[in-house]
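INTERNAL AUDIT FORM
Audit reference: QA-55
Scope: verify that the stored structure record matches its stored sequence.
Auditor: D.O.
Record contents follow.
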Amino acid sequence: MSPTLAPSVIRTNTVVVGAGQAGLAAAYYLQQRGVDFRLLDAAAAGAAWAGRYESLRLFSPAWVSGLPGRPWPGNPLHYPTRDETTAYLRDYAAHFGFPLDLHQRVTRVGAAPEQAGYEISTDSGRTYLARRVIIATGPYTAPRVPAWAGRLPAATAQLHSRDYRRPSQVPGSGPVGVVGSGNSALQVAADLAATGRPVVVAFDEKTAALPNNQLMWLFLVLTGLLRVPRHTALGRRLSRRPDPVVSGDLAKLRQFSNVTFIGRAEAALPSGAIQGQKGVSPPLEGVVWATGYQPDYGWVDLPVFEPNGAPRHRRGLTEVPGIAFLGLNWLDTRRSALLHGAGPDAKRVVGELLKMP
């Protein structure tokens, strides 16, 4: 007879780490299959969205942004805001009554001692024992900034777009720089420019720009371009290309008279200026780095990573039985890191995991 487990030890079939869109979609399909599971999050459902900048809007309309089993409420043509996205995810978790354990930051996932399965430890002192673990914390974890960012003087305030919420976070009223060539860089720069202060944008002029309208999304859905698998020849070619930015957002930013584009950032100068391919900024009072993220899975004590720290998987499934990832860029297709792709990826990964003994 097995000894009685202490209250701080919870045994379950599957643990899902992360209650963003990927983790919630996994929870939906686990629930549909009648699997005993726990959904863990360091804060709350949708917390990653709640922590983004206030002016954020989804790049996809509501009709292609819903999770399985619960369409987005309201106008399907609407592009949801940050707060609307957070509310939708929290409502989704509450509607289905998932076994959601909040404020459980996972500190280690490793092999369970002296038994099959895995041991998941949290900073609250809880331990979960599970046969399967789905890691759905997403790709937006550790901010990445250029190595030369440290050359800026201490007087130049610096923050990453992950920590940017509103213009008032950047002190002063003089020039501020935004470095990056993605959609977040354009939205943050426009947010700052709307205050009237000078904004210098270090943006790679070679970045592709596409319209973001209902017709484009209808085209992407009907042609299946968002569903091209990464492991095909076309998928490999597409995955190597940088993501395009929204042409309307780029055009809007160029209309601000207080915005200057200097091309892709190349270096920082001791004066507090940034050298771009097309010009040099004036000394900056602050810089927002919209320069992406890098993997941060130091808490996963399992042999499932490439030398660069990225998860090693095929379509979300790893070589370690019972361990899978969800919500990564190009986990399977272009839509994998979007709300649009959370459901299909979760359905497939959960189905494959449950085939394992």
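Auditor finding: record pair retrieved intact. Residues 1-6 have pLDDT under 50 and may be disordered.
Action required: none
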